[in-house]
């Protein structure tokens, strides 16, 4: 198992990233997510793809993971090109590898929300034969327009007592409020920017929508049969276009994804409330949870424009 941390890209369709809580600089989010990733992989199997990470942050990461596991992009071309670099790096070392992918430039997801669902899903990745990846969602508390929404396929698992996992029917990024209300009533989940799959399957998925980019990346990493290695990473990035894994890959290939829910925020809050006493870990988790509850109105006032 590899963990891929994508410290790049823009979450919003208009280019905005959800406003972080006080003190949550994107670089600190990267460090928090890196700490979380140690739950799923050894340091030498954690890969970071970042757009020119600050030296101080890179140094804090490098004392734990190999320097070769930090890929510094010449410029930020969003999450899909970044993921292609990570997949090429991993495929060259381990063609049958599984990965857990985490986008780091968004609201931090507390560890307790991942529970055992993620671990169980990771163990079952070898049994995925008809989809390329699993994406994790959170049951919503309200119909918010400042979230990405994952809508399950209503035709799946109708006869099963357990409603999940299901194929993904649609991904809708920051919908209008009236659309969010419909998604809320239709069983939609909030996107967590957390996904998992076999590296080879994800590589072919990217190739369906950005084949030219993958050809260039494969050549750069020496994956082609000719063994001919391409030009520098800077030259490569001058020849490829930006692309979002979410809005340009998942939104256009929803049937390639299986949707798995994580515990609802209210359930996590209830567990924390029942825990005897208080401790710093619970307090940190409560702060992280509140970042998911901040009103959409705050971001609307900051210039956010929901989209259909």
UniProtKB/TrEMBL annotation:
<feature type="region of interest" description="Disordered">
    <location>
        <begin position="276"/>
        <end position="308"/>
    </location>
</feature>
<dbReference type="InterPro" id="IPR029044">
    <property type="entry name" value="Nucleotide-diphossugar_trans"/>
</dbReference>
<feature type="compositionally biased region" description="Polar residues">
    <location>
        <begin position="276"/>
        <end position="289"/>
    </location>
</feature>
<protein>
    <recommendedName>
        <fullName>Nucleotidyl transferase domain-containing protein</fullName>
    </recommendedName>
</protein>
<dbReference type="GO" id="GO:0004475">
    <property type="term" value="F:mannose-1-phosphate guanylyltransferase (GTP) activity"/>
</dbReference>
<dbReference type="GO" id="GO:0009298">
    <property type="term" value="P:GDP-mannose biosynthetic process"/>
</dbReference>
<dbReference type="InterPro" id="IPR051161">
    <property type="entry name" value="Mannose-6P_isomerase_type2"/>
</dbReference>
């Amino acid at each position: 198992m590899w963990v891929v941390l994508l410290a790049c890209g823009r979450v919003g369709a208009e280019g905005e990233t959800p406003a972080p809580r006080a003190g949550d600089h994107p670089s600190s989010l990267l460090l928090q997510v890196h700490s979380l990733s140690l739950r799923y992989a050894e340091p030498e199997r954690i890969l970071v793809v970042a757009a020119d990470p600050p030296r101080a942050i890179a140094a804090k990461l490098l004392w734990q993971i190999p320097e070769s596991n930090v890929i510094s992009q010449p410029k930020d071309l969003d999450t899909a090109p970044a993921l292609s670099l990570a997949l090429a790096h991993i495929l060259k070392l381990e063609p049958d590898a599984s990965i857990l992918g985490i986008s780091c430039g968004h609201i931090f997801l507390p560890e307790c929300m991942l529970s055992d669902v993620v671990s169980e899903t990771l163990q079952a990745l070898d049994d995925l034969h008809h989809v390329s990846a699993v994406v994790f969602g959170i049951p919503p508390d309200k119909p918010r327009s400042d979230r990405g929404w994952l809508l399950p396929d209503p035709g799946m698992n109708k006869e099963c007592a357990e409603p999940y996992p299901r194929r993904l029917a649609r991904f809708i990024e920051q919908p209008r409020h009236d659309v969010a209300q419909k998604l809320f009533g239709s069983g939609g989940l909030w996107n967590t920017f957390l996904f998992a799959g076999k590296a080879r399957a994800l590589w072919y998925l990217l190739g369906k929508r950005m084949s030219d980019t993958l050809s260039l990346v494969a050549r750069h990493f020496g994956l082609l049969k000719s063994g001919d290695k391409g030009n520098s990473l800077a030259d490569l990035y001058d020849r490829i276009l930006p692309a979002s894994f979410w809005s340009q890959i998942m939104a256009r290939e929803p049937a390639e994804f299986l949707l798995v829910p994580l515990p609802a925020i209210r359930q996590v809050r209830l567990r924390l409330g029942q825990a005897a006493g208080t401790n710093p870990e619970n307090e940190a988790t409560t702060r992280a949870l509140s970042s998911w509850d901040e009103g959409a109105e705050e971001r609307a006032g900051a210039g956010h424009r929901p989209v259909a």
